[in-house]
Amino acid sequence: xxxxxxxxxxxxxxxGGQAPPIDTFDPAHDQCGTGFFSDFKxxxxxxxxxxxxxxxxxxxxxxxxxxxxxxxxxxxxFNTWDKMKILQRQNxxxxxxxxxLQTEGKFIWHNxxxxxxxxxxxxxxxxxxxxxxGVEDCVxxxxxxxxxxxxxxxxxxxxxxxL
Length: 163
Known about the structure:
Pfam families: Lectin_C
Largest sheet: 8 strands, mixed
Protein name: Hemolymph lipopolysaccharide-binding protein-like isoform X2
Signal peptide: 1-19
Low-confidence stretches: 1-14
Shape: globular
Number of helices: 3
Order of helices and strands: HEEHEHEEEEE
Distance between the termini: 28 Å
Organism: Biomphalaria glabrata
Structural class: alpha+beta
Helix content: 10-25%
Domain C-type lectin: 51-160
């Protein structure tokens, strides 16, 4: 048990500079904003309610994804306009749970849903996604909308606890 916790702390420190809480997860009591998820908060827009944790340090897409996964969460999925309004409140360049790593041009949200017609969806900035130089497979909020960027760049990120 101790070695598992130590590995988790070291791993989280290497990928994100911060370790998640050491508390044992208790599904009966650990919910958004409490216990294991005390650093997450409820965000609302219209009928949409999300449980999010905004990073305070940048990371690569892989590092951000791993950090969220070890917390039992995923990179944030902002697949509706009300969810995009929540994302836009941050006003930072932020990795989200959308990429075309499996198939170029086929953008998949981290809940498994495909974003149809990305360029005409209204979610991306003008002339995006562009796959500039053939290396842009990960997605960030940039300005008010999304942009594809190299996954090896470091940006802030947002984890989502599914409600």
